[in-house]
Amino acid sequence: MKRLRRLVWFIAGRLTLITVVLGLATIAFYFAMNAANIFVVLKDGLAQRAMTVMMKSDKDELNKYFAVNYLARDPVLAVIDNGTNPYDRYQITGIDHRLRMEWMWSWPWEDTARTTITEEIPGIDGRILASWRGVTPPEQLNPPTWQAGRYDVVLVRESGQWHIRSLTYVGAYP
Question: What is the CATH number of the domain that holds 98?
Fold first, then answer.
């Protein structure tokens, strides 16, 4: 009887250990999967946002990455509508968009994620339009630089897809 009891406790202890290890592995897998999906949404979404401002890309493409209520209040996209876009005088042919995710947290069972990112565009390929060349000072013939910055981002999962709900500018990125 004593051996049977020891055997049962041995098996129960091993099953508990295996269950805990498998549970932690499952949580780690879903955390990594969410982190990868969130990084892709952030990278592609912010690159599309920059191309919309600089290259006059289709604004409807942003709906794949951003929540609709955020697009209406985004200050970067507001320059397109209010006529103060500094890139209107230029024909931009390419950008070097860089994004670094500094921190991210999302429980596997939640539909909200928080992350801190840095965004910069160190290279902008483009030239001034011919109609503006004569009235533009020589120091402004190259496209203006994009404001690099650090952002706190909140993402939400809607219908199985991550969307950027809010993008808060924290400060300049050197």
Answer: 3.10.450.50
pLDDT digits (tens, 9 = 90+) for 71-106: 989 998 888 888 888 898 999 999 999 999 999 998
Total domains present in the chain: 1
The single residue listed with the structure tokens 């920059």 is: 50
Nearest of 36, 77, 39, 38 to residue 59 by alpha carbon: 77
At 19 the pLDDT is 97
Three-state DSSP state, 45: helix
Rg of the chain over Cα atoms, rounded to whole angstroms, equals 24
SS3 at position 141? coil
The span from the CA of 96 to the CA of 133, in Å, is 24
The parent domain of residue 16 ranges over 2-172
Sequence-distant (6+) residues with CB within 8 A of 73 are: none
- The DSSP call for residue 133 is H
